[in-house]
Design a protein that fits this description.
NIPSNAP, four-stranded antiparallel β-sheet, Dimeric_a/b-barrel, about 40% helix, 4 helices, NIPSNAP domain-containing protein, Alpha-Beta Plaits, alpha+beta
Length: about 140
């Protein structure tokens, strides 16, 4: 346990400080499968956010759109931040290979996929944007 905490602390200390003015922001939209929005939110709440942080992703904000005519399953919309696109690619590769994530994903999808479709948009902060405060 102590070794795992030490490894995590060292990994976090080694991560570059994120400058909100130069960060790469990723807007991700998860279209939930019908009837799976609560399970998807539970997976984010209980596991995904901490795993993102473990792999160097900065959680900026999350929103939930309830099911409606245009989105029958509802959607989870969120923003992550990274120091660069290269850092983003490395973080997602590590996240996808993480045994804890694989176990969580398999368990949460035992009764079917939670997500039908994912959209991803990459952004940088506009020079006229109010300041963003990123907390890690």
């Amino acid at each position: 346990m102590i070794a795992a905490l030490t490894t995590l602390a060292l990994a976090q200390a080694a991560q570059p400080r994120l400058d909100p003015r130069t960060a790469i922001y990723e807007l991700r939209i998860y279209h939930a499968a019908p009837g799976k929005l609560d399970a998807l939110s539970a997976r984010f709440r209980g596991h995904t956010l901490k795993l993102f942080e473990r792999h160097g992703m900065t959680n900026v904000a999350y929103w939930v759109e309830q099911p409606n005519e245009k989105s029958p399953g509802g959607r989870v919309v969120y923003v992550l931040a990274y120091p660069s696109r290269e850092a983003r690619e490395k973080a997602w590769a590590a996240f996808g290979a993480d045994p804890e994530w694989r176990a969580v994903a398999a368990a949460s999808e035992a009764n079917g996929k939670l997500v039908e479709r994912v959209e991803s948009i990459f952004m940088t902060q506009a020079d006229y944007s109010p300041p963003i405060r990123l907390v890690r």
